[in-house]
Amino acid sequence: MWSSFTYHEPTIVQLIILSSWIYLLNLFGWMSQHLLSAQLLGQILIGIIYGTPLAGWLEESWEEAFIAVGYVGLLLIVFEGGLTSSFSNVISLLPLSLCIALTGILLPIGLSFILIPLASFSPLHAFAAGAASSSTSLGTSLSVLNPASVGFDLRQSKLGTALLSAAVMDDVVAFVLASILGNLGENSSGGNSSIGKNVGRTIGVTIGLGIVLIPLTRFVLKPLYGKLRRSGRWKDATWGGESMLVGLMAVFFISMIAAAGFAGTSPLYGAYVAGLACAYLSDAADTAPKAKDNRKSTEEGIINQVDSRELGLRRLHTFPGRASSSHSRSRDIVPFSFGAPPLAESEPGHMSHTLRSSFERFLTPILTYVFVPIFFGSIGYCIPFVPLWKGRIIWRGIIYAILMCIGKVACGVWLLFWPKSNKTQDASTGTTDTSSWRGAAFLGCAMVARGEIGLLISQIAYNTPNPLLNEDEFLIVNWGIILCTIAGPLSVGWIVRRFGKSIMDGGWE
């Protein structure tokens, strides 16, 4: 006998709740962006109000669905981060990113052992707290790199590349630590062998996936994409143009997150390397035709064309509003539809079909106004808001948050001592440019937010059959995670307003 889900018309109350939920997520995100330079804080607040912590207007099934939808948004944010990165910068800065990531993992774990005398944690429970606090929120890191947040594009700079690569490494290690805590909490007889197996599998898959992807992209995908770019038929075909490029990216994106997830590492890592591969293809195949077209263009044509490699993707503001004059000159916003014909070559404001322009036209609007707000809103209702307000919990949580901020801010110190290129040497004195302290402060503050990954690990440690955190310990750790997630974007916004583009001085542009 066949079966199907019975269709029920939503009630008026449900429609009002869902409509206002989506609208207020965007409205409060826009307000907090303009007031605090941190759009996610307003969206997290709406999540707390609408969800289980306070009003409870969102049904449990809705909250579960929004977590899934929001995680898809997080995967797309990470993919976009890889797509807008400079592939050459990622490779050249890999040692620096590794040093930053290790500092951001080991220092918070070490500082967490202060909880033993401070709050009577056991060593194992202090390690569990450190594991939760060693993560870096990928969603928040990419949010602070957003051109709409900082006013200019950091994602292809050396500073932005080092930050994003270190955050991805932290995520992979956090995935390993979550697996370790899960096994410790189950306390099975084969726990030690299971931990070793899971850790080895995650590390092996992470390295192996990167090793396999390099020749695959270089020798298989690059020639195929180059052949497609040289053929003019696909641009004007009903099945071609930017919509086809979106389809190719979707297939590759889904394949990589499935490969990473089923093989035993973080799906976020799969999304990032998929974005990096697409960035490599875009850099290799899109720049040559674009340079040729630019030489033939008049000055007005150059203003109308957008070089997506130099500018990266222009994420729209969280709340609809008038675009800046420079954005208006770059391109006109057109309705996005998979059935819409591509712009003709002779039309003003034409943008050549590229992977980056395709993502911007078709996916950026829905990512900006739907997926990202839902993602940060879902973080809000996962926060145990009411139980946090206990006197003995508050002061311990604040002290722990300060320690965890120090643990991540210290990551930026590497920029002060990392060897610079000859371009950053003073020609007259031969001394090294010391202005990179601004970039060090920016990177350290951008690493502070824990967000979704920290909450996930703390929940695993608290909800295992043999809990690695009791209720008070869980709340103290959550105080640290929440305050760090608030302090990180706020401090980044202040640094950007104070120093602007000079944060990339000292060879980090």
TrEMBL record:
The chain crosses the membrane at residues 12-28, 40-59, 65-83, 90-118, 124-147, 159-182, 202-221, 242-263, 366-386, 398-418, 474-496. The keyword Oxidoreductase does not apply. It comes from Kwoniella bestiolae CBS 10118. This is Cation/H+ exchanger transmembrane domain-containing protein. InterPro entries: Cation/H_exchanger_TM, Na+/solute_symporter_sf. Residues 31-289, 352-497 form the Cation/H+ exchanger transmembrane domain. The keyword Ion transport applies. It comes from the Eukaryota. It is found in: Membrane. Keywords: Antiport, Ion transport, Membrane, Sodium, Sodium transport, Transmembrane, Transmembrane helix, Transport. GO terms for biological process: proton transmembrane transport; sodium ion transport. One of its GO terms (cellular component) is membrane. GO terms for molecular function: antiporter activity. It holds the Pfam family Na_H_Exchanger. It is a multi-pass membrane protein.
